[in-house]
Amino acid sequence: MTTTRPTTAPAGAPAPGASRRPAVQRALAHSLVLAKRSLIKTLRTPEQLIDVTLQPIIFVVMFVYLLGGAVSGDTTAYLTVLLPAIMVQTVVFATVATGVNLNTDMKKGIFDRFRSLPIIRSAPLLGSVLGDMVRFVVCIAVLLGFGYAVGYRIGTDPLSALAAVLLVILFGFSLIWISVLLGVTAREPGAVQGIMFLAMFPLTFGTNMITPTETLPGWLQAWVKVNPVTDVMEAARGLLNGGAVAGPVTHTLLWSVGLFAVFFPLAVRAYRRTA
Question: For the chain: N or C, fewer Cβ within 10 A?
């Protein structure tokens, strides 16, 4: 006669197979694994990087050589003002792809598979976002490299330039959660893209990116002054070219914290409701 041992774990003990690491550490580990998946997916389809490689170059060439002489009287002077703003604009537009890709993966049932795995529930969202952060880095590297080739020179020190890059990435990381929220809740990928572009155009072009604020109509000046993207562009210009940066940098940090505080929990909550 054989004796069967009880399989129920004692109260307070972790379930069989469960990790004993703290939740935050497990969330980070799971997110990094899924971020690696997102990176591999991007490497296998490099055409997904066209919007962060060719698009900013086209914008620089188009605006500098079409408008530079009229706006600044000199294309080199205009390039100094325009390039940091294009860097911000491209990162802001790059956030759209995250929501579209998330929605596409959910339609294919990939996230149903994630939900069946013993991982932190928010890890698939964090993994997708962290994996897409490489798009921001590629965009900035390509833009600064192209800018150097056509005559742009950073007017400050390396630490200030690094601060400009990190600040732009931080703002992109906070803004991307709006795209994630839409990616989780929208019915179709096309809807995510349509809604995001509808919001991104006034955010990026409703700034002093192309022309000085003083040359704009009064009602548009009011929008430009409260637009958070204007603060990011001003901060990037100050850190890369020189000038006052305290106000724009402070405003950018506050906007970044506010966007993340609002949209990260909303996106995670919406994702959990779909489970």
Answer: N
